[in-house]
């Protein structure tokens, strides 16, 4: 099947009232586990990798693997660069055939965030690739380092929405990595934004939220939800002993089980078109 584009997947999710899972991968087992779950449940998905993870999984190697797996899948699969911080890496992802990229300049003043995002929108246009940006700031960075949490404002969200992006991640009290306790999410931000944005809303830091929180987020308009930590933990915990081939198999199955649960929770089962 041809590579899917995040733009189209999120448009369909808006129309259908569900969220598409965007699942982080680090190796072949992650990729195969996500695809297996998507095909079993006939669900559209995104395969994603964050720029901060490329020290462990070189983009030049894992990028083509992600793309090949997406093209061979029997369901729509988009290939996404998560938390792109530098134009060089974003351009490399576009050259490798990624169908969407995220420009994350949320740690900069809003006008700098807006300027860099516009540059990425311009760079992505010749490829037909979709673009995601972030406003506010999500607690804890993708690599586990601490950062200040900033709740997204209506003014900044509207500014970013006008930059030509397709998706907007908003800080509403969510955080990457493990939560020490169930977070207080600012649903009022989503209620205020409802119906006012052209771009689709994205949630980062999904691992560890309750089923009830996920259902409410989807109801309030979240159309893309990122999952990373739960995938990596399941994969690591499944491996034991020195039989590498057994560990490959159980690792892939562990990822499949985690992803299957989220697909059902997000309402995207059976939505592969």
Outline the structure in words.
The protein has 273 residues and is of the alpha/beta class. It has a single domain (6-266), classed as Aldolase class I (TIM Barrel), CATH 3.20.20. It has ten helices and eight strands. It has helices at 6-16, 28-41, 59-72, 87-95, 110-124, 154-161, 187-193, 211-219, 229-238, 244-266; strands at residues 20-24, 45-50, 77-84, 100-103, 130-135, 167-170, 200-203, 222-227. An eight-stranded parallel beta barrel has the order 1-2-3-4-5-6-7-8, surrounded by nine helices. The longest helix has 23 residues, at 244-266. The radius of gyration is 17 Å and the shape is globular. The chain starts with 5 loop residues before the first helix and ends in a 7-residue tail after the last helix.
Overall tally of domains: 1
What's the CATH C level? Alpha Beta
Amount of helix:
40-55%
Uncertain segments are none
**Average pLDDT, to the nearest integer?**
92
Number of helices: 10
How does CATH name the architecture?
A: Alpha-Beta Barrel
In N-to-C order, the SSE pattern is HEHEHEHEHEHEHEHEHH
Overall strand count: 8
Identify the CATH homologous superfamily.
Aldolase class I
Shape: globular
Briefly characterize the structure.
This protein has 273 residues and is of the alpha/beta class.
Pick out its properties.
273 residues, alpha/beta, TIM Barrel, globular
């Amino acid at each position: 099947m041809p590579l899917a584009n995040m733009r189209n997947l999120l448009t369909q999710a808006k129309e259908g009232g569900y969220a598409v899972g965007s699942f982080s991968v680090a190796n072949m087992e992650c990729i195969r586990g996500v695809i297996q779950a998507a095909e079993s449940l006939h669900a559209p998905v995104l395969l994603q990798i964050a720029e901060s993870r490329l020290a462990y999984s070189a983009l030049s190697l894992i990028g083509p693997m992600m793309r090949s797996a997406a093209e061979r899948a029997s369901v729509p699969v988009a290939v996404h660069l998560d938390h792109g911080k530098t134009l060089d890496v974003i351009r490399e992802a576009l050259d490798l055939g990624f169908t969407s990229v995220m420009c994350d300049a949320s740690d900069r003043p809003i006008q700098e965030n807006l300027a860099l995002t516009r540059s990425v929108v311009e760079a992505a246009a010749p490829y037909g690739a979709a673009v995601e940006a972030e406003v506010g700031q999500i607690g804890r960075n993708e690599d586990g380092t601490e950062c200040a949490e900033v709740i997204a404002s209506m003014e900044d969200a509207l500014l970013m929405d006008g930059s030509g992006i397709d998706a907007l991640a908003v800080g509403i009290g969510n955080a990457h990595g493990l939560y020490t306790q169930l977070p207080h999410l600012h649903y009022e931000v989503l209620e205020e934004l409802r119906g006012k944005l052209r771009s689709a809303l994205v949630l980062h830091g999904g691992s560890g939220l309750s089923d009830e929180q996920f259902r409410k987020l989807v109801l309030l308009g979240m159309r893309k939800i990122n999952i990373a930590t739960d995938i990596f933990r399941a994969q690591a915990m499944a491996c034991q002993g020195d039989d590498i081939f057994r560990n490959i198999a159980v690792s892939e199955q562990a990822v499949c089980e985690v992803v299957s649960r989220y697909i059902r929770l997000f309402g995207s089962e059976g939505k592969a078109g």
